[in-house]
Design goal:
mainly alpha
Length: 360
C-alpha cells in the first residue's frame, strides 16, 4: 500500500513546479510584447484605461437600444469635448507654472543647500566627528539643479507635441470599444478544450479587478488633485495647480508618492519671497488632509477590494518594477502584481485539481 500522506505533498510540490514553468513562460511572452510595443506602449495603456472607464457607458447606451457604433461615437465625442475644455483651461496654466518652477529652481536648491549644510554642521558637532559634506552637497545640488532645469525645459518644449499625440488616443479607444470583445473571443477560441474554461475564468477575474482598479485610481487621483489644488490656493502657496496635479499623480505610487509630494511642497514654500515659515506647516497639512480624505472616504468607497495585496508585496513590487521599467513600472506595479497573483493562483488550483482526480 502507498502512504497517501506522502503522495499529497509530492503532488503539491509537483503542481507548484508545473505552475511556475507555465507562469514563467507567460511572463516571458508578456515582456517580449512590452519590448516590441515599447514605442507605442503609453498610448496603448492610456487607450485601455479609457476603454475600462467608458465601456460601461457604451454598454448602457446599447442596452437602451442605441446602435453600438453610435454609442461609441457619443461617448468619445463627450471625451474629446471635455478633453479640449480641460486642455484649453489647464495647458496654459501648467505651462506658466512650469516656467515659474523653472525660475524658482535655483532659489529652491540654494535654500536646500543652506539647510543641509547647517544641519550637517550641527550633526558633526553633536557626534564629535568632522563631516565635511558641504562640497558633496554643493556638487550634488548643482548637478540636480542643472538636470531639473533641463528636464522642465524639455517638458515645456514637448508639452504641445505630447498633447497632439494624446489627441490620437480616442481613435485607438474607439476601435477597442468597437472590436475588443470580438478579438478577445477569437483569441479565447485558440485555447485547447482542456484550458478553455480556465482561460475564461482567469480573464473574467483579471478584467473585473483591473477595470475596478483603473476606474478607482482615476477617480482617486482626480479627487486628490482637486483637494490639493484648492488647499494650496487657499494657503497662498506658489504654483498650486502644478503642485496639486503632481500630488494627484504621485498618489498613484503608494507610500512613496505622498512623501515626495510633501518634500515638493516644502521646497516650493521655502523658495517663496518673502519666506513665510507657516507655509511649510500649512503645505504639509494640506497633503495630510488630502491623505485622510483619501484613506477614510475615497479608498473605502471607490477602491476597496479592487486589489488584495499585502503592503510588503506592494513595496517590493514598486522597487522591482521601478528599477526595471522606470516611472511607468512604478505606476503599473500594483495592477501587474495583482494580475500575476490571480493568474498564478488559478493556474495552481487547476493543475492541483487535475492531479488529485482519481486515475481510471
Amino acid at each position: 500500500s502507498v502512504d497517501m500522506s506522502e503522495q499529497v505533498p509530492f503532488k503539491t510540490e509537483n503542481a507548484y513546479t508545473q505552475t511556475f514553468k507555465i507562469f514563467a513562460c507567460m511572463i516571458a511572452i508578456v515582456l517580449a510584447g512590452f519590448y516590441l510595443l515599447s514605442s507605442v506602449l503609453i498610448p496603448i495603456i492610456i487607450s485601455f484605461t479609457l476603454y475600462a472607464i467608458f465601456e460601461p457607458a457604451t454598454l448602457y447606451l446599447v442596452r437602451h437600444r442605441v446602435n453600438h457604433s453610435l454609442a461609441i461615437v457619443i461617448v468619445l465625442v463627450f471625451l474629446v469635448f471635455f478633453s479640449f475644455i480641460a486642455i484649453g483651461f489647464a495647458l496654459p496654466q501648467l505651462v506658466e507654472q512650469i516656467g515659474l518652477l523653472q525660475a524658482k529652481l535655483p532659489s529652491i536648491f540654494s535654500k536646500l543647500e543652506g539647510f543641509l549644510t547647517q544641519y550637517s554642521a550641527e550633526f558633526s558637532d553633536k557626534i564629535g566627528v568632522d563631516l565635511d559634506v558641504s562640497d558633496m552637497i554643493i556638487s550634488t545640488l548643482s548637478q540636480s539643479s542643472s538636470l531639473g532645469q533641463s528636464f522642465l525645459l524639455n517638458i515645456s518644449n514637448k508639452l504641445l507635441g505630447v498633447t497632439i499625440v494624446l489627441l490620437l488616443v480616442p481613435f485607438l479607444t474607439y476601435y477597442l470599444l468597437k472590436d475588443f470583445r470580438s478579438v478577445r473571443n477569437r483569441m479565447m477560441n485558440w485555447l485547447p478544450n482542456t484550458s478553455f474554461e480556465l482561460g475564461w475564468l482567469i480573464y473574467y477575474r483579471v478584467s473585473q479587478q483591473l477595470q475596478a482598479y483603473t476606474r478607482g485610481v482615476m477617480i482617486q487621483s482626480i479627487i486628490m488633485s482637486l483637494v490639493c489644488i484648492m488647499g494650496f490656493s487657499l494657503i497662498g502657496l506658489d504654483i498650486p495647480i502644478l503642485l496639486g496635479a503632481i500630488t494627484g499623480i504621485l498618489n498613484l505610487v503608494p507610500y512613496v508618492g505622498p512623501v515626495i509630494s510633501i518634500l515638493l511642497s516644502l521646497l516650493v514654500a521655502s523658495a517663496m519671497t518673502p519666506f513665510e515659515p507657516s507655509l511649510l506647516y500649512l503645505g504639509v497639512l494640506v497633503i495630510i488632509t488630502a491623505q485622510v480624505i483619501d484613506n477614510v472616504v475615497v479608498i473605502p468607497a471607490v477602491i476597496a477590494n479592487a486589489v488584495n495585496l499585502h503592503p510588503v508585496q506592494v513595496i517590493l513590487g514598486i522597487i522591482i518594477f521601478g528599477s526595471l521599467f522606470g516611472t511607468l513600472g512604478v505606476v503599473l506595479a500594483i495592477p501587474a502584481i495583482a494580475t500575476a497573483k490571480i493568474i498564478f493562483n488559478n493556474l495552481y488550483a487547476d493543475i492541483l485539481n487535475e492531479k488529485e482526480k482519481p486515475s481510471l
